[in-house]
Design goal:
It is built from 3 helices and 6 strands, in the order ααβββαβββ. It has 257 residues and is an alpha+beta fold. The chain has a 4-stranded antiparallel beta sheet with strand order 3-4-5-6. A two-stranded antiparallel sheet has the order 1-2.
């Protein structure tokens, strides 16, 4: 009497199938992440183009001068928004509803420069909160290249920037930064961050701010680019990259010259 053989997977075959499924899932997750990241950059590009146009329209009405707020230069990178936002159809007090100023990749910030904790706690790292959700950041993911007024406010050496300058007199409009994602000034990246997301340190963490961080940047000539930002490796506030122009090989500059 013959017994019919029962078809089925062996253990090895089952493990092979599971391994293939795991590989396919990983590839799919990577593809989805890439598509999501590209979509965020497209939205950010659209935001920055509109903001850039708003700044230019403001300048057209103010004798070709870029935004510069008298008496508010202690926050030179942020005050531009209040001055020019009516040129992009926004009115009233700043709020989180102003989606034009919210980068979809803005999901965390670097705590050392935008402190959530007292300096005495020695916490310095990424905080899982959007800058565009914070009133002290004018509910904005984007900063203006206005560092030149910071030095004027504090009696310190002038920093690079274009606040209050004639837009048509800027010598290299295709390289001069106009408005950029806040991380571009430091730099770190919302789009390609380095992990871990939170670190304990008494000073800057090399894995938090880093050279060649990729950020969305708009330029005086109106174009927007996904740009690598230079960090010279200096620790402390004066090491942030918006305080100096990069060396050769980078496609941007903070100074108007």
């Amino acid at each position: 009497m013959r017994h019919k053989s029962e078809a089925g997977f062996t253990l090895i075959e089952l493990l092979v199938v599971m391994a293939i499924i795991a590989i396919l899932a990983a590839l799919l997750a990577s593809a989805i992440s890439g598509v999501r990241g590209k979509a965020r950059r497209i939205t950010c590009t659209s935001n920055l183009r509109q903001i850039n146009l708003g700044v230019r329209l403001y300048s057209d009405d103010f004798n070709d001068r870029s935004p510069k707020a008298a008496g508010q230069v202690s926050r030179p990178y942020l005050v531009y928004k209040e001055l020019m936002k009516n040129y992009v159809g926004l009115h009233g007090a700043a709020s989180a509803k102003e989606k034009l100023f919210a980068c979809p990749a803005d999901t965390f910030y670097f705590d050392y420069l935008f402190p959530r904790y007292p300096r005495s706690t020695n916490l310095a790292g990424y905080v899982p909160e959007s800058l565009c959700s914070r009133a002290d950041m004018e509910f904005s993911s984007y900063a203006f290249n206005g560092g030149n007024t910071f030095g004027q406010a504090n009696g310190a050496a002038a920093r690079p920037g274009i606040a209050g300058l004639s837009m048509s007199a800027i010598r290299h409009p295709a390289r001069a930064v106009l408005v950029a994602e806040v991380p571009a000034l430091i730099p770190f990246s919302w789009h390609k961050p380095k992990r871990p997301l939170y670190l304990l340190s008494t000073t800057y963490c090399p894995n938090v701010i880093f050279n060649n961080a990729m950020d969305m940047v708009s330029f005086v000539d109106g174009h927007v680019s996904y740009t690598k930002m230079y960090w010279n490796g200096v620790r402390g506030f004066y090491g942030v990259c918006c305080n100096y122009d990069p060396p050769a090989g980078y496609d941007y500059q903070w100074d108007e010259k």
